[in-house]
Design goal:
Layout: H1 6-44, H2 63-89, H3 93-101, H4 108-126, H5 135-141
Length: 142
């Protein structure tokens, strides 16, 4: 079986990254909602310790345990897809750092996914990896 071309590998990595960016972002929003609900419940009844409040457990059984653990493991898979895409398109460390942080800052994964997707498609259309630069940095240099 012939090796996949760089373009096919990059498209595959981009597709996996996109899926995990959305899944990670959704789980992070769920986790954020859980914590906000706990804080709201704590504000109305501070006689109970903060993390003993129900939060989303009213809707999702054991949400205080399930949601953080699920987000943690999903984030690990997200990191693998980030590293896969980053290594394929050969962007700089600044982009890697931004992509890694997008999994822990609410809403950032959705915003960054659009930009990463556009930049990666442009890179794929150009026919090769960036060699450590983003296309925008390369365009600015010329």
């Amino acid at each position: 079986m012939a090796d996949k071309s760089w373009t096919d590998q990059a498209r595959g990595a981009l597709g996996r990254y996109r899926v995990m960016a959305y899944v990670t972002g959704a789980m992070l929003l769920l986790l954020t909602l859980h914590v906000v609900l706990q804080l709201a419940q704590f504000a109305s009844d501070s006689s109970i310790p903060l993390f003993d409040h129900d939060g989303l457990s009213v809707v999702i059984p054991n949400a205080g345990v399930v949601v953080p653990i699920a987000h943690g493991w999903i984030y690990v898979v997200y990191l693998v897809t980030v590293l896969d895409l980053w290594s394929k398109v050969r962007w700089g460390f600044g982009r890697l750092t931004t992509m890694v942080l997008a999994g822990v800052v609410p809403v950032m994964s959705f915003v960054l996914e659009r930009r990463v997707h556009a930049d990666a498609l442009a890179q794929i259309a150009a026919g090769g990896p960036a060699g450590g630069q983003t296309l925008r940095a390369a365009d600015a240099a010329h």
